[in-house]
Structure prediction request, 402 residues.
Amino acid sequence: MAATVAAEQGRQVVLLEKMDQPGRKLRITGKGRCNLTNTSTLKDFMTHVGSDARFLRNCFARFFNTELMDFFEQRGVPLTVERGNRVFPTSGKALDIFLALVEWLERNERVEMRKNSVVKSLVIVDEEDGSRRIGGVRLLNGETIFAPKVIVATGGMSYPTTGSTGAGYQLAKEAGHTVVDTVPSLVPLVCEERLPEDLEAFTLKNVRLWIAPKEGKKLYDGFGELTFTSDGIGGPLALSASRMVSRVLHRGEKLVAHIDLKPAVEAAELDRRLIGDLNGNGTRVLNDALRLWLPAEIIPLALKSMHIEYYKRLNQINAAERKRLLGFLKDCQLTLTGTRDYTEAVVTQGGVSLKEIDPKTMESKLVNGLHFAGEVLDLDGDTGGYNLQMAFSTGWAAGQAK
Prediction:
């Protein structure tokens, strides 16, 4: 986006791509469908991004979701708004978004796209007045490319096989920038408990998840879909929660994940129903009877958590054991100890400090002519199109800069 907009401004652009093909991450985003943006109002949109949503107000005022949708539709990509105000190419193919950008760049005589071109360092010039300006970049092959403006749009560290290995952070540090410590975000969570093998890949729908320290305020509370993994929890709920808890977990602190399997029923009402079910099915064995309340896949976890003999008949279940059953249904608990790594993280949390970046132009406040855009900045958002919109808007602002 930065290269496209800069070329449209009449600039001569050299686009340096470290991989043998550009746009690898873009082509896999949204499970290959590319959730381009979200049509929420600006006020609502801002509640889904961090670390400082105010930083985005200026570039969003000039290039937001409607402008982004117009940008791609004018380039022959029809778009569709789906559940949750999520915007996708109508074809369902991220490739269409990629081609709309890359084919234009390849045809444009003002753009030179160089593949397999790894930037080793920045060329920074010290001025007589004590200021510093960008002079260009040095490539790994020894070549120096001189330029009055450089835009670092290298991404973060998520999905490193696509080329996002954190190289942009090193360039930023070289220029004197502060880089906020990075952690994986929108990533599955790892738990301490050993989960039953049959539970792996099993998905719970319409459940509530909240996460908190053993003693303390909730860090996350949400409703939706949750998937068990071999070592914890994933799916939309867990990924959304990771934005709020990843940094805490990576400090070595443990948290408790609470799963309400029956969020539509209050605890008192569910307890009354349990009493009725226990009385009406008294001769059934617990292991079998749990199917009254739970999917088969989760029953081994229930038995392990409740500490009730699986062969016990329902008419032998005492009040304390019934309360433990109720507790599992309304508050199944797992101890969280960490997250999966960057290979499974949708985005990176942390990055170049926003305090050192001009929000109008994405220009460095430390080095004139040096700009940053996208995930390399300390910007991350929820799933739902928020992260790509931030990337495109900041890229647009950097490309527009005089």
